[in-house]
């Protein structure tokens, strides 16, 4: 069947079977919206174990000891924590509340790492009290940690966050260079107060080559640390493990070509001819690469099989020779296939110049990451008796914030058979970042309810308990 809605340049989402089943039942979707409000976030974590399994299989091929930590900032539900644990994984937490939730949910403290960019004393204390490894970002943070540990009379377990000194990589605000860490560890007498359990880094972008370069750099740091009496047991390569939302690479290239060719003033492809940060036909770094290859398993295989300049051994062999565990912290690519957002149509109207607009009961922070746009076609469900006859049109999705630029998505969409109030729009594959990373309760509009699959039905995620009790 032809979709009831698609981009003027279509970008067709890959769907999980559970998503297809939800979409095949518009009445059931209406009921969810009526009960829980619009938008509502649906989670079915059945794909998470498969995603983790792809990574594990690639590591096993290279005989590398390996563990996966879900980056909790990508999705705030307790269901996501449970799913990570059920897949024998751990969690990467970025705040006091994330750590507290994970511990209260029963995650083994050994399967948690704190990577928060800025760490409160309360967060450090909670980590220390539970023996959770803290990724150390800088010397001041190290002093804070040692002070809090001294009060408690415990030894801190840390991973040194490594900022690469490799000129092939862009500069980073995170961590310190290896020479700085070594200087710090030489300067203070710490072995009895500080255990260097591992090395940690997290890179921008999705380059396998960059990961291999910084893994090689981490291995050199491990060797230097041995000279200072430390015996790190792992290297954690952070997140940024790539995934693909689109199966059709042709759609992806056609979209960027059309965008590059969009005449100034035309809105055939995007609102107000927005270039979405692109340069010519190259997707800008301002958006996620919704189609890319390789992803997950084959990508990790490329990292592990690469040979750093000057060594005959692969990264995998160098890890194995030192008895080091490789860890990673995927957010997005672990949550691939785990979520979908449903929203109700509020109105159909025209902009003052006649451009058609479809208004939704949601705001743009409820399906948005930190990048310029979410580049997947939503799915329209004719779910209600139309008030007026539905007419075909092509236009834009607008939302609830009182701002001219309140676009839910910035691309133009075609509605070959029209749309009407109370019809529904589903945003596919939103569990990684799209639901939560920038959601706001501006205008005192409530945050979306999060539902998790429970057997055949949907129940509010336990994170809602806190909200309901408040
Ligand atoms: C955000 C983040 C991640 C997850 O990144 P993805 O791109 O979602 O895989 C992992 N580790 C750290 C330290 C992060 O900041």
TrEMBL record:
SUPFAM superfamilies: Alanine racemase C-terminal domain-like (SSF50621), PLP-binding barrel (SSF51419). InterPro entries: Ala_racemase/Decarboxylase_C, De-COase2_N, PLP-binding_barrel. Gene3D superfamilies: Alanine racemase (3.20.20.10), Lyase, Ornithine Decarboxylase, Chain A, domain 1 (2.40.37.10). Its cofactor is pyridoxal 5'-phosphate. GO terms for molecular function: diaminopimelate decarboxylase activity. Keywords: Lyase, Pyridoxal phosphate. Its EC number is 4.1.1.20. Residues 62-251 form the Orn/DAP/Arg decarboxylase 2 N-terminal domain. It comes from the Bacteria. It holds the Pfam family Orn_Arg_deC_N. This is Diaminopimelate decarboxylase. The lineage of its organism: Bacteria, Bacillati, Actinomycetota, Actinomycetes, Micrococcales.
């Amino acid at each position: 069947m032809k979709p009831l809605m698609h981009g003027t340049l279509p970008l067709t989402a890959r769907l999980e079977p559970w998503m297809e089943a939800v979409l095949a039942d518009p009445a059931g979707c209406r009921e969810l919206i009526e009960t829980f409000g619009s938008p509502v976030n649906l989670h079915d974590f059945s794909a998470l174990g498969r995603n983790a399994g792809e990574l594990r299989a690639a590591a096993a091929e290279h005989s590398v000891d390996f563990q996966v930590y879900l980056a909790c900032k990508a999705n705030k539900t307790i269901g996501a924590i449970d799913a990570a644990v059920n897949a024998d994984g751990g969690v990467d937490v970025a705040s006091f509340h994330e750590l507290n939730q994970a511990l209260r949910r029963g995650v083994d403290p050994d399967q948690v790492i704190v990577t928060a960019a800025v760490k409160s004393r309360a967060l450090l204390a909670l980590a220390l009290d539970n023996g959770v490894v803290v990724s150390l970002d800088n010397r001041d943070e190290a002093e804070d940690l040692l002070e809090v540990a001294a009060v408690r009379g415990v030894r801190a377990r840390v991973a040194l966050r490594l900022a690469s000194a490799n000129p092939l990589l862009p500069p980073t605000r995170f961590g310190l260079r290896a020479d700085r860490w070594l200087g710090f560890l030489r300067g203070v007498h710490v072995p009895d107060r500080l255990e260097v359990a591992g090395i940690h880094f997290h890179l921008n972008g999705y380059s396998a080559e960059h990961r291999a370069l910084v893994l090689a750099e981490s291995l050199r740091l491990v060797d230097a640390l041995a000279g200072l009496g430390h015996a790190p047991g792992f290297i954690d390569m952070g997140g940024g493990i790539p995934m693909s939302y689109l199966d059709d690479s042709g759609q992806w290239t056609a979209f960027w070509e059309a965008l590059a060719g969009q005449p100034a003033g035309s809105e055939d492809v995007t609102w107000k001819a927005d270039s979405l940060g692109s340069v010519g036909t190259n997707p800008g770094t301002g958006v996620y690469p919704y189609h890319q290859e390789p992803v997950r398993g084959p990508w990790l295989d490329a990292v592990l099989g690469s040979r750093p300049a000057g060594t005959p051994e692969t990264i995998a062999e160098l890890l194995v020779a030192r008895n080091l565990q490789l860890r990673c912290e995927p957010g997005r690519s672990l949550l691939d296939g785990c979520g979908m957002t449903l929203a109700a149509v509020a109105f159909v109207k025209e902009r003052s110049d006649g451009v058609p607009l479809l208004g939704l009961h949601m705001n743009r922070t409820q399906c948005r990451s930190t990048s310029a746009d979410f580049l997947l076609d939503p799915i329209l469900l004719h779910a209600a008796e139309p008030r007026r006859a539905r007419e075909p049109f092509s236009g834009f999705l607008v939302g609830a914030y009182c701002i001219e630029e309140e676009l839910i998505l910035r691309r133009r969409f075609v509605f070959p058979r029209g749309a009407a109030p109370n019809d529904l729009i589903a945003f596919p594959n939103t569990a990684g970042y799209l639901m939560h990373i920038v959601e706001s309760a501006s205008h005192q509009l409530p945050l979306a309810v999060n539902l998790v699959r429970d057997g055949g039905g949907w129940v509010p995620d336990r994170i809602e308990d806190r909200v309901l009790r408040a």
